[in-house]
Amino acid sequence: MTVAGAAVLKNEGFCPICARSSTFVAKGEWLRDQYLCVRCGSVPRERALMSTVETQFPHWRELAIHESSPVRRGASLKLARECARYQSSRYFAELPLGAHRGGVRCENLEALTFADASFDVHITQDVMEHVLDPASAFREIARTLRPGGAHIFTTPLVNRSAPSRVRARRDESGRIVNLEEPIYHGNPIDKRGSLVTVDWGFDICQRIFEACGLLTQTIHIDDLSRGIRAEYNEVLVTIKPAATPAGDRGDPA
Ligand SMILES: [Zn+2]
């Protein structure tokens, strides 16, 4: 137990999102949601993701970046503000795919309307645990990446070394079938929240490879000087090779 209002963790450091000195404060013990940058309000996974983008693609501001289901905070806002070719999308069930509402494009990660090789980087932040057909989503992300591009994302690997477990899927008629007690996470555009469809483990890299033939790195940063410490704070980087030999596309489709 902690005294109300007292910080569990508080330190000065460099925020990768603010790109300047800041203070990181956690008022609760669940650092994943509670260890905030006082300047930008970001949480550790957003700072870990932004650090990874900077490391892997230092020239990200010049690239074509797509983010599915951004939040109005942290890395999403920074990418939108500083990358001229940043494009975001959300899934609106009632809109045709590719249509726009309020400047936001409607896209379903399982069936993107973007042409092949449209983007250098796809970003998803805590989205892949809500997708009903993740194999299709990983294939679509791979299809729309340019050679040399990457899908950089966070998703809570709650099962760690245990196998990933499907919690919900679609049946043949398209109905959602819950295989486990439904769990919902907060969703900025849906009061009901988002159904958790998979409890991912470290084997997510194998699942991605089986889906799209691409390799994935799991990056764990623990660095208080950047305000990066939390539970389930891995950043995953699925890389599309820059060049593949002719006749060996490595394409499972
Ligand atoms: Zn910040």
What would you note in describing this structure?
The protein is an alpha/beta fold and 253 residues long. It has one domain (44-239): 3-Layer(aba) Sandwich (Rossmann fold), CATH 3.40.50.150. It contains five helices and 17 strands. It has helices spanning 31-34, 44-56, 74-82, 134-144, 204-212, and strands spanning 9-15, 20-26, 35-37, 64-68, 85-90, 100-101, 104-106, 119-125, 145-154, 165-166, 168-170, 176-178, 184-187, 190-195, 198-199, 215-219, 235-239. The protein has an eight-stranded mixed sheet, with helices on both faces. α4 crosses α5. The N and C termini lie far apart (53 Å). The mean pLDDT is 94. The structure holds zinc ion.
Q: Topology of this protein?
A:
Layout: E1 9-15, E2 20-26, H1 31-34, E3 35-37, H2 44-56, E4 64-68, H3 74-82, E5 85-90, E6 100-101, E7 104-106, E8 119-125, H4 134-144, E9 145-154, E10 165-166, E11 168-170, E12 176-178, E13 184-187, E14 190-195, E15 198-199, H5 204-212, E16 215-219, E17 235-239
Parallel strand pairs: 4-5, 4-8, 5-7, 8-9
Antiparallel strand pairs: 1-2, 2-3, 6-7, 9-17, 10-15, 11-12, 13-14, 16-17
This protein binds zinc ion.
Zinc ion is lined by residues 15, 17-18, 22, 37, 39-40, 42.
Q: What would the average pLDDT be, to the nearest integer?
A: 94
Order of helices and strands: EEHEHEHEEEEHEEEEEEEHEE
CATH architecture: 3-Layer(aba) Sandwich
Specify the CATH homologous superfamily: Vaccinia Virus protein VP39
Helix content: 10-25%
Distinct ligands: zinc ion
Q: Report the strand count.
A: 17
CATH third-level topology: Rossmann fold
Shape: globular
How far apart lie the N and C ends? 53 Å
Rounded to the nearest angstrom, the radius of gyration is: 18 Å
Query: Class, according to the CATH hierarchy?
Result: Alpha Beta
Percent of residues in beta strands? 25-35%
- Unreliable segments of 5+ consecutive residues: none
Looking across the biggest beta sheet, what order are the strands in? 6-7-5-4-8-9-17-16
Structural class computed from helices and strand pairing = alpha/beta
Largest sheet: 8 strands, mixed
Number of helices: 5
| Tally of discrete structural domains | 1
